[in-house]
TrEMBL record:
It comes from Haematobacter genomosp. 1. Residues 437-490 are annotated as: Disordered. The keyword Hydrolase does not apply. Keywords: Membrane, Transmembrane, Transmembrane helix. This is O-antigen polymerase. The chain crosses the membrane at residues 18-36, 73-93, 100-117, 123-142, 185-202, 214-238, 250-279, 336-357, 369-387. Residues 473-483 have a biased composition (Basic and acidic residues).
Amino acid sequence: MTARTAGDQAIGATKERAPWPIVVMLICVIMVPIEFSFRMAGMFLTTSKLCMIVMTLVILPKLPSLKMKPYDWLIVAHAFWTAAALILLYGTASGIQSSGFYLLEFLVVYLVARVYLRTPGQLKATINVLFVMVVISAAFAIPEGLTGKPIAHEIARAMTGNYYPLNHETRMGIFRAKSFFEHEILYGVFCASTLTMVWFASTPEQRTWRAPLIGVATFFSASSAPLMIFTLQIWLLMIERFTRTVKNRLLVVSSSIGVVLLMLDTFTGRGVLGIITMISLNPATAWNRRAIWQFGIDDVMRHPFFGFDPITYSRPNWLGASVDNYWLLIMMRSGIPALVFLFLALLLIWLAACRLGNKNELVVRLRNGWGMAIMALLLTGATVAFFGKLQPLFSFFIGFGAALANCYRPEEETPTEKAAEPVRRGPVFSRFGPEAIGAMRQRPEQPVVSARAEASNARGESLPLRRQPAAEQGREPGPERNKPTLSRSG
């Protein structure tokens, strides 16, 4: 049996379910349109924010039992540094509201994943839940892409009476579908980011139809960033497939990619960001993203610690206020330390996952799928901002990796392997245990009288005596040998 066959059997044999808090949180974050939001006390409350408020109360009693790792503390440091920066930038009233929402949609989402995802089987079941959500989203997106009618939003509008303005653009001959999301980029990034995780959590038979379905769902977003995520993951899957026999392949592949990027940077003069933005369906969009980085990073260097209001960054009149770069946006609104904390946490999570070893095939597959998805998201974050539903979704992906790094230990496989070995057993006693047998062996020998002999003795019949063994003939009878030992007679 090969490793692949064993892995396929491990995938098919896992029957655990995703924890219900995870399922409820994902439904509220992904599947509920924005028309179900409302305003209360001057705050715009979405379903995901309300869900996170409830989840905060649910996980608070469980946090003392959570063994915090260094990357957990880095995530906490990132969240609270960002919250402090928002309060400094926007004042007490607006700052507390903005920082509170960020803590809910980033830190609480991370902690929910960290607390409730405990086993590899639960992680695989959660991936299956994400795939089901992709299928449902695609069922609404495909008709929307063909007809231009946002069916999910129209249903939500009819139920709530709330109206949210949506853009209706066409690209590649179809309407850019949004499904349950506010923007087509959000929908496309969600669908595309699940590819490698679904791939490694599926059997070969399931891959033949799951991967194309994710591709079709991503295509109807008609957006550059989702298609880039999907393409990058396909490249990573091909690299993983063709380098399985290479020793230290992670080092070899990383070095090769670094050399290629260095050569492209040297001979094209565009830089890494310029190379990434070249993969765009709209050349004007790619040019704007390069300009946003060039003008935005200058202001970041002038405000390195706590950042500034992103709307006020220095730019030409022809460049809009939108910041299509998530990493640049983090540095703008909360300073360089916030981004450093986040990247260090991701690095430590990846190293912790690598230390799990290769003994458990399911864990290896989950690690490969998560690592490729995060790598694609990190590259795509340079071309799009993770706003709206993408921010809690990205935080959930980070928490997924942290849960993976903690749900399994290589040393835990040793007792299981030992338990699987045949164990030599002693004699099986039907009425007496071994202690009782030992006590009986230590007793002095008792005369053995049959039931028939006792009955004959009671009638006064004489019974022949049993001949004593030679070893006992010269021995004086003790208190237990006053009666002769009788044999069975008729």
